[in-house]
Structure formats: C-alpha cells, structure tokens
Design goal:
This protein has 346 residues and is an alpha/beta fold. Helix content is 44%, strand content 20%. The two termini are 53 Å apart.
Length: 346
Amino acid sequence: MINPIWLDTFITLVETGNFTRTAEQRFMTQPGVSQHLKKLEEACQCELVVRLGKGIQLTEQGQRVYHYAKEQQEKEQDFIASLKFDAPFEGKCVVACSGAIAQRIYPALLALQKQHSALNVHVEVAPRRTILSGIANNTLELGIVTNQPESEDIHSEYLGEEALGLILPRSLPDALAAQVPELSDNTQGCISNSGSGSGSGSGSGSGSVAKVASVSGKAKSKTVDASSLKAVIKHLGLINHPDAMHYLQRYFNDCGEAELANINPNKLPHAGYINQLSQILLPVSEGLGYTVLPTSTLDFVSFADKLTVYKAKNEVTEPLYSVQTPHSALPARYQVVKQAITQVLG
C-alpha cells in the first residue's frame, strides 16, 4: 500500500508546480518534500517528475500517479462525509418478523418506499429465536417478535397486540358430524353457520375480520360451545405449522374456557402440516382440519368465507415488541420505517 502522506505531498507538488510552495502549504522543509517524492518514486519503481529549474514536469507515470492520488483523496473525503450523513429516506433497511406480521406491515413499507425511492426496504420472514439471535449477534438491526425478550443484549419496545383465533371450516364435513355423537343438530349449526337460526344479534354472522363469522352459536351457554368445540378438534385434526403448538397452548390458557384449558395440545391428532403461511388455511377451508393463527391472516386469503373463528369467552392476544441492539441508536432511516410499522401494529 502506498503511503497516503507521500501521495498528499505529491498532489500539492503537482498543483503548485514548485517545491518551495509545496513545503509552505504542507508545513514542511523543502528537503522534506524532496524526500517524500523520492520515497514515492521508489514505491512506484519509476520516475514521476522531471525537475526544470524551480519547477517540474510530470512524466507519463507521474500523471497516472497524480490521477490515482486524487481518486484516493476524493474517496476518503466521501467516506468521511458518509459517516456524518444520516439520511432519513435513503439506504437499506432490513426488518425481520414472522410471516403474519410481514403480511400486515409490508403494504405500509412499500408505500413508504414508493414515496421515497432511495429507501430500500427488505423484509425477512424468520422465527422468533432467529430474530433474537440476529439482534444479539449484530447481524440484524431491527426485528419484531411476540412476547418481551429477557436479555440485556436486546432492547425492546412495546408495539401493540396481535389477536389469535382458533379457525375452523365454516361447514363441517357430513362424515365428521356422523362420527361425533356429541355434535347435535344444534351444535352443528353453531359451528357451520352462526348467522342462521335464532342466535344473539352479536353472533349473527358478524366478526372482527371481514367475511369471517364468529362462532357465538345457538347454544345457551359458553360451556356447551366449548364442549362441542372440544369434540370437534379431537376428531377433525390440527393443521400443524411452525407456530401451531405455541399458539394452541396460549389460546387454551387464555381463552377463559375451562373445557379447553384442560386439553394438552401435544396429545391432539394432526391432520397435516405446512410451513407456508399463505397456504395454512387452505386445508381448513376444505374441511380437512382446524388451526390457530393470528386473525389478521384472514384478511389475506380469498376463501375467508369458507372459514369461521371460534368466539371464546376471552379474547386471546400476544404482545408485539420491536427489538434492536441496546448499544447504539438506529440510523435515521430505521426510525422512519419503525414509525410506519408502529402505525400499523399499534
């Protein structure tokens, strides 16, 4: 590597054309300038200037070294400037989160990128443990996870809540109804079509998710609803996915239904498995099983009218947190992205 001090002296010598003026500008002695030039020529293994009295003339190699030195000087200046410049609407931002959260936040991030074309947004779908590991190891700068992490290596901020739903086929297969003695005609109506018959006004086909009926049912009490549901899920089978067991356990614990709280998710029969979020609800819509997912996923499927969400006694939610390293502030562009995410999830 060529000594940058020699190159800086050479640039000044070329631009002043005089050893004396170069020494003055560089706060050096004239012999010192000559010494830098000599060392630079030795490093380049060629003659760079021809002395003409008090002036100089560049050789062809000298012209090339001058242009090289100027390029290096400009690159260094640009690099130093980049360290001081933190543009809020320029640069690459990587956000890691679950697939369900990605579905919710990505449209808003695309709108932000469309508004600011120099902003480059990358959304990485990853499980919680991978996101936390990336933050702790400084390979990720911003992530979104459920439940607050307990680690000094991770800084977290509360964003909002994510509602979980136990999602069933809107219409149970006839064969299943025949196999489950606990399913009376009254209960079958409860599961398959909450909008028909003499249900309460709040259960007549309305729900918090578009096109999805909440199963408030015809049964006179929550105990009957939960008991019927327990029979259904034991015979219908779980459509398993990477977060299914975690979601099931949380749902059974927090839904307020005693019949469900006593179920061990690990002992429930499975009807299939898929790890692609956009496809998990497809077998459910075909009557092949049930699953538990964030209810927001129902907004992104075209067959939501074939699904129904069980209306438990208590709403079940998971808290969402943004995570980042605690040792340094995020660049300005990440703050802009984080604000857009907060508006969606908050």
